[in-house]
Amino acid sequence: MKSLSHLTRSSLILIVFFGLDKISAFARSIIIARQFRLSFELDAFNVANNLPDLLFALISGGAMGMAFIPILSEYLTTRGRPALWDLFSRVTNLAFVVTGLLAIVIAIFATQIVRSQIGIAPGFGSQQQTLISELMRLNLFATLIFSISGLVMSGLQANQHFLLPAMAPLLYNLGQIFGAVFLSPTKPYMIGSTSLPALGLGVHGLVYGVILGAILHLFIQIPGLIRYQFHWTPAINIRHHGVLQVLKLVGPRLLTMLSIQLIFLARDNLASRLGTTGAITSLTYGWMIMQVPETLIGTAIATALLPTLAENATRQDWESFRQTIEKAIRILIALTIPITTVLATGLRPLVAVVFGFDASGTEMLTWTTRVYLLGLAGHTVLEVAARAFYARKDAIRPLIASVLNTVAFIGMGVLMVNNFFWLGAPGIAIVELAFTGEALLLIFWLNRRLKSPISMDSTFIRALIGGLLGGALTYTVIIFLPGSPFLTASIGMLAGVLLALPFMIKELRSLLNL
Question: Range with the lowest mean pLDDT among 48-62, 111-125, 221-235, 280-294?
Answer without folding.
Answer: 48-62
